[in-house]
Amino acid sequence: MPFWVVGALTEHWGALWAKLLPINLPLSALMFVCPITAALMLVRQENKPAGVQAFLKRAFDYKRIQHKIWYAPIFLLMPAVMIVSYGIMRLFGLPLPAFQMPLGALPIFFLIFLIGGIGEEIGWSGYAIDPLQARWGALNASIMLGAVWASWHIVPFFQAHHTAQWVVWQCAGMLPMRVVIVWLYNNTGKSGLAAILFHAMINVSTFLYPNYGSSYDPFIAFIILAAVAATVTFLWGPATLARYRVAPLRGSAVRR
What we know:
- This protein is mainly α.
- It has 9 helices and no strands.
- It has helices spanning 2-9, 14-20, 33-56, 71-91, 106-136, 138-159, 164-187, 192-207, 218-236.
- The longest helix has 31 residues, at 106-136.
- The mean pLDDT is 89.
């Protein structure tokens, strides 16, 4: 809530912020530090200070991703979703600027959103999702956590001057997004890094959309992401999102 208040009180700084970085982010977006802060407080209470250091290593646990094929969906799935979304908008004649991709901004965007991804996913994936999965199963846990994740963003979305319709569909899209994150997390040996990288790519892909994301339609993205999440759930199973139905998939292993 303090970050929401700061975002409301500093809306007039938006023009200055836009000059520094041409993306529509309110200062309340700095609340990405909250999940990691809460998780560290709880880990310290449960496991004493020694457990904090081990917990923080979840952000860089690349060794858990034993089968490198999983880097393909981690890095390429969200760009593919946005490209398909752009194609659909063009197909139906929806208003769009000329296709352009500010690739020069890619390293800056990735660094910024990687930091944000660490702040959020150390809490969401590193701490919260495993107990939820143990009790409710992977799909139900994903939807539950996705609902919290989406609700947590509602105020910043409005502070970024999006319409109510935009906010509704963006929040709806965050449910299948979370299903995909949990799918990647479970199939990479429960790697926090996998969740962090995919989270970063969600934001990078959105802001690389024409005009730095201003023409992005969350309703179309929701339809595509829902189809992706449904496919993943069917093929890998709702209980774990990690048991491939068709044939044993190299790398689909859940590490505890």
